[in-house]
Amino acid sequence: MNKYLAGFIAGFIATAVLSLLMMLKAQMGLMPQFNVVQDINLFFGAEIVLVGWIVHFLLGTFIWGGLFVLLSSVLIGAYWIRGICFGIIAWLLMMVGYMPVMDHGVFAVALGMPIMIATLVLHIIYGFVVGLIYGFLPKSRL
Q1: Is 62 within 8 Å of 121 (Cβ atoms)?
Q2: Would you say 66 and 11 are in contact if contact means Cβ atoms under 8 Å apart?
Q3: Is the dihedral of CA 40, 45, 51, 57 positive or negative?
């Protein structure tokens, strides 16, 4: 299998796991002040929640899944360890890119420390899953 296809599959599965955790967080009423799907909808001016979910899955599958393939060759360790490192990198990018754009401040200062920690944990889980799945999938050198 092409290594990028493997990355996309791993990204999709990791995004599904992350999404289940996000839904569980919402059902439990934890940190309602932060909802990435609502943020995406606001950013695009969409009124249908499905738009946010589609964009979330496209980003997690293709952008982050593809970036993992590109960066995994420079990260060290087993693929699941590379995935955790990648998840931390993605979290840092979210903290300095996404959060300020969405008016939450650098490192989500407007939302508070619990959001910063929760998003770090979620990104570590995403990275772990993407690395684990990618490591299990057969890949060609293409």
Answers
A1: no
A2: yes
A3: negative
Nearest to 130 by CA among 61, 53, 74, 70: 61
Asked if residue 90 is part of any domain, the answer here is yes
Q: How many domains does the chain have?
A: 1
Could you read off the pLDDT of 73-122 as tens digits, one per residue?
A: 999 999 999 999 999 999 999 999 999 999 999 999 999 999 999 999 99
Q: Say whether 118 sits in a helix, a strand or coil.
A: helix
Token representation of residue 28? 């439990």
- What length does the chain have? 142
141 in any annotated domain: no
Alpha-carbon span 75 to 65, nearest angstrom: 15
